[in-house]
Structure formats: C-alpha cells, structure tokens
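Attaching the record inline, Q. Sequence:
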Amino acid sequence: MHKTVCELFAGVGGFRLGLERADKDWTTVWANQWEPGKKTQHAFDCYCTHFGNNENHVNRNISEIDKKTIPNHNLLVGGFPCQDYSVARTGATGINGKKGVLWWDIREILETKNPSFVILENVDRLLKSPANQRGRDFGIILTCFHQLGYNVEWRIINAAEYGFAQRRRRVFIFAYKNTTKYSTYILKSVKHPECIFNNVGFFAHTFKIEGVSVDAIRNTELTETDLVDVTEHFSYDFGNSGFMYNGSIYTCDSTPLYEDVTTLRSIIETNVNQRFYLGNNLEKWTYLKGSKKIQRTSKTGHTYTFSEGPIAFPDPIDKPARTMLTSESSLNRSTHVIEDPQTKQLRLITPLEAERIQGFDDNWTNTGMPEKFRYFCMGNALVVGIITRMGAYLNTVFTRESEVILSDKNHETREAM
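Structure, as predicted:
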C-alpha cells in the first residue's frame, strides 16, 4: 500500500514533519491550511516554505472545497477544533450539522475519498463534552465512523509522560476501515479486549501503559444509527483509552508507563536577547500568576465568586513545560516565565524555545512572520515526536497491508495458471 497522506488543518506542518521523520516514503498528496479572519496567512506561508508551494497545498476554507477534487490517499490526518457536533432534522434535506463545524468536512472527505486509515487530534475534553450531556459529541463522531465502515481506537496522551518536553494532554483518534488487514488483526482479540489495550492495539504499540485488567473495562453498544437520535439521547462516560469495533465500545482509564522526563532546562537557549526579560516591574505578572477570588455578576444578574489557584512563578525549569497556548509571550497568566540560569533574571521563553517545546526544528517558524505569530503557531501545533512515534508503527501497519495485496495477486496468478 502506498503511503499517501491528506493533511487537514495543517498549520505549520507538524503532522507531516512527524511522519517524514518516521519515514521519508510518506507522501503528502494534499494539504489544507486556512486561518479565518487573517489577511496574511502566516502558517500556510511557513508550511510552503518547508514543503513547497504547489496546487496541492491549498489555502482555502475547507468547507468551500469540493471534496471530490482532493487526490486519493490512504491516510487522512489533522488536528481539528473541538466544537458543537450536534445535528438537527431539516425536513426534506435530511440532517445537518451546525454550519462551520469542521467535523462535517472531515466526514465528507471520509465518505468521498474512503481512506483506509485516519489519525485525528483534539483537546481531551472532547470525550466529556458537552457538560450537560457528557460524551455526546464523541458519540456522534464514533457513530459517523461506524456508519462509514470504520473501527476506532483512541487514547488521551500527555506528551510529558512519554518523555517529551511539554505537559500537553490531547486525545488521539486512530480509525481504520473494517476491510483492512489491520481490522482482521484486531478482530482476533476483540473477545479479549484487555489484549487490545495492553499489547495488540495501535496505542499499545506506540504508547505503553500499565496492564489493564478485564474488570477495569466498561462496555456499551452504539444502539442508535440516526445522528439526531444520538444528539438527543446519547451519553456515556468515556475513559482515557478505548476502542470501537463494529459498534461495540470498550473503554477504561489507563495509566501510562512513564518515560524519562525532558526538562525545560535541557532545551533552553543561552545568551538570550535582553528584550525577552521582564525587568523589575513584576506587579502585574505577580497578580496574574497568583491566587484570586473576584466577585462577579452574570448576564442574568446572579452574583458569584470567580476563584483560581496560584500558578508557579517562575516556571520550574527542571520539569517539562506546561501546555503552551496561542497567547504565549503576551502579558497573560498562561505565558511561561522562567528564571534564566545564566543571568538569574526572569524572562519569557523565546520563539526558538517554543519550537523546541513542540519538537520542531530550530527556527522552523522563522520565515518572516511576526514574532507574536511564531508563538501563536506553536500554541496551535502538536508535539511532533508523538506523530513520529505513531508513524514508525504505521510503517509496519502499511507493510502488512501491502503484503495482503501482494498475496492476493499471487493467488490470482496461480488460479489463472
């Protein structure tokens, strides 16, 4: 099987870089990146700087693209935003998801192009949303995959727990057509679901966990096939690990086998420019990072107390970084502030350090974009090394698929003889 990739919501190319580090034979046949409301498309320009500017690198709203024009591919990847996935009946037109919700573009591509494999990334709260009907949104996604003939595995991965330089929790979704060799391989263990969690499944091969017992696994069925019914009625307590096979859902809360920590200290620069230092006016920073209780009034006139606990100030450099957000470097509670080990003075992390926290090459975003947008791009990105690890195992998966095709062809040849 050719290792062809379609990359959605490509950003500055984290998925592609991760896969190509695993194997140069991964070929991205189409990529889309579009930042709504931005006159200058800095992330797309950065992507093209590294991977070329051609007709298959597309800077348009994915919702406006005819999905039939996307080249065929065997792997669809993308980090899509967490939105409201609910659907409603619309009379003669059937059912429609909310306008602008990008999941429905993903579903349309799956339906139109039928890729054998899918890897998607999202914030971990996807498994619990919305708050008033927990698990509904993920239930809708699983139902869509089931309708289109896919089985699914998922895992919430905290990058720092597997040796990366950032405490970034994201849910990764691996889906595969039920006609693949991989699906047949998984089927052999479905009657023993603990095996899929422990040593057989995709994430068992890529991100090891402590052994899961069969008693720790919960099970339910996708009994609704109508997405409106799922929207109105589905609710389930999904664990941080799970899989769905032929509509049967198995889930549990797994514990990672922790790997050696990568600290901020190990990746920070030396001789940093003075403009990254905070100076002596720290009153605002101290307030933002400290604990607080504030009386507020809601839109309905209800009075309540907003409270938040303290955050480390400065950030410890002998631990991995906290989750980096798009607001990094601004005067903001979430911005990293470290004590420079050379000068012993407080400063921001640099754009290059932000790239290292996400696992990109040094100066990956130093392509002419404003400095604040370099931080923005890193806040939007994923940890590249996670994709490289997945790509390494996908090489094995794709090789097995090719062996099946070759075997079938040899069988046909023998029959003809």
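The CA atoms of residues 199 and 205 lie 6 Å apart. The first strand starts at residue 4 and ends at 8.

More tomorrow.
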